[in-house]
Design goal:
Length: 287
C-alpha cells in the first residue's frame, strides 16, 4: 500500500529549502497527502511508462499546481499550473515526451513518459500545491533494456587453440553473461563491457577458450538482471577441435558429418517450459 511522504532524504536540503522559500508565505501545512507507489516502477527502453500520484483524501486537484521533478524542483520533468502545462519550466530532456494522464476531479494524476531512455532511470518527486499548502511524494523508476540476440564467432588461433567470442548490444543495466558447454557445465570467460555515451546502453563482448576437447559445442546466454528474460546463442565447435581427426568424412566418436556449412538443431537443457530449447546453429567449416 502506498504511503504518504513529506520529504525526501535524497534531495539536497538546501535545494528544497530554497524552493520552499519561493512559495507564497503561509503556514504550508496541507490538509491533504500525496500518495505514490512504494515499490520501484519498471519501465522498458523505447516504451511508455506512467508515474502515478494521488491525493488523500480524494479531493479535486483541478486548481492545484502539479510538479514532477528529479533532483531539483526547477527545471522540472513536467509542471501543470493555472490549468495548463508550463513548458517554459520543463527540462530539455523531457520536452515533447511527457503528458498528464489525469483524473484530477478525484485527486488522481499520472505522468506519462513517452519513449523511455536509460537516462529516465532514477528518482522522481511529485508535488501538489494549493495556495500556501503543499505535499509531495517520491517514486523510483527502474529502466530495463533487452538487447539484441547474441552472436557467437569461433576462431582458431593455432598456438592458442580455439577461442569463441559472444557479443551483443542494447542492454540496460549491465547484463550478465554465462557460457556453458552442451553438457550444461559452466565455463570461465573474459568479459568486456562498454557503454554508449549517446544512449547509455551497454554492449558486451565475452570470450572463452575451452580446454576440454570432449566439448562438442557452446552456448552463450545474456540476461537482464531486472527482467526474467534472456537471449541465448549456440554454436558447435569445429570437428577437428573435438577429436584429433576425421575418419571417412565423420568425426569420431560422434557420427556427425565434417561438412562445411551444415546446419543442425541443438537441444539445450535448462530452458523454460519443456526444459529444452531448440536452436539452429551452423557448423564451422573444416580447415
Amino acid at each position: 500500500m502506498a504511503k504518504p511522504a513529506r520529504g525526501d532524504g535524497s534531495l539536497p536540503g538546501f535545494v528544497m529549502l530554497l524552493f520552499l522559500q519561493m512559495l507564497p508565505t503561509g503556514h504550508g501545512k496541507a490538509d491533504f497527502y500525496v500518495l505514490a507507489p512504494q515499490d520501484p516502477l519498471l519501465a522498458i527502453v523505447g516504451e511508455d511508462t506512467e508515474l502515478p500520484c494521488s491525493l488523500a483524501p480524494s479531493i479535486s486537484a483541478q486548481g492545484m499546481e502539479l510538479r514532477w521533478y528529479r533532483e531539483q524542483p526547477t527545471p522540472a520533468v513536467h509542471v501543470r499550473v493555472g490549468g495548463r502545462d508550463a513548458q517554459e519550466e520543463q527540462m530539455v530532456e523531457y520536452r515533447g515526451r511527457t503528458a498528464l494522464v489525469s483524473g484530477l476531479d478525484w485527486g488522481v494524476a499520472a505522468l506519462r513518459i513517452h519513449n523511455v531512455t536509460t537516462f529516465d532511470n532514477g528518482t522522481y518527486h511529485c508535488l501538489f500545491k494549493e495556495h500556501t499548502s503543499y505535499s509531495h511524494a517520491t517514486l523510483w523508476l527502474k529502466v530495463a533494456g533487452l538487447g539484441a540476440a547474441p552472436q557467437i564467432q569461433v576462431i582458431d588461433k593455432q598456438d592458442q587453440g580455439i577461442w569463441a567470442t559472444c557479443s551483443s548490444a542494447g542492454w540496460y543495466p549491465e547484463p550478465r553473461v554465462e557460457w556453458r558447454d552442451l553438457r550444461g557445465q559452466t565455463l570461465p570467460a573474459v568479459i568486456r563491457v562498454s557503454v554508449s555515451a549517446a544512449t547509455g546502453l551497454f554492449g558486451v563482448v565475452s570470450s572463452v577458450a575451452p580446454q576440454d576437447r570432449a566439448i562438442d559445442g557452446l552456448t552463450c546466454s545474456i540476461s537482464n538482471p531486472l527482467l526474467s528474460e534472456s537471449k541465448v546463442a549456440a554454436r558447435r565447435l569445429p570437428c577437428e577441435y573435438s577429436v584429433p581427426f576425421c575418419l571417412h568424412n565423420h568425426c569420431a566418436p560422434c557420427p556427425r558429418p565434417c561438412t562445411p556449412g551444415t546446419r543442425e538443431g541443438l537441444v539445450l537443457p535448462g530452458a523454460a517450459g519443456s526444459g529444452q530449447l531448440a536452436l539452429s546453429t551452423a557448423l564451422l567449416g573444416t580447415r
